[in-house]
Design brief:
The chain has 5 helices and no strands. The protein is mainly alpha-helical and about 130 residues long.
């Protein structure tokens, strides 16, 4: 299948990748990437692998569309930070709640045990222990 060898080379170089790095990311041999850039011919699987590694649609390698990377997510960096802080605050609130609840439950259990102990000391015959 005919592909645009210059487009592959320019996209690879724009990312600062060597042919060997592109080959590793795409799961291809370095020789395959060399042939793609030299001859402009690729098997369907190689074209799909290179497109996925470069983050573009496979049709963009054939020159049908402008070579623009496909955005990986609609969430910006600022939104990711806000979401991360929100999640961290919820986790911390849960940890604090568990700490307070554990303290209260432990305190109540200790007070109950002390009352039972005092009752057993006062009336050993009625003690169920």
């Amino acid at each position: 299948m005919k592909i645009d060898a210059n487009r592959i080379r320019s996209l690879r170089e724009a990312r600062g990748w060597s042919q060997e790095h592109l080959a590793a990311v795409a799961g291809l041999s370095p020789r395959t990437v060399q042939r793609l850039e030299a001859e402009g011919k690729a098997a369907h699987e190689s074209r799909m692998a290179v497109a996925a590694a470069l983050g573009i649609e496979p049709t963009q390698l054939a020159g049908f569309q402008a070579a623009a990377p496909v955005p990986t997510s609609g969430i910006g960096a600022a939104d990711r930070i806000k979401i991360t802080l929100w999640i961290v605050s919820i986790v911390l609130a849960m940890i604090m709640f568990q700490g307070v609840a554990g303290y209260v439950l432990g305190k109540n259990a200790a007070e109950r045990d002390n009352r039972i102990e005092e009752a057993c000391k006062a009336a050993p015959a009625s003690c169920d222990r």
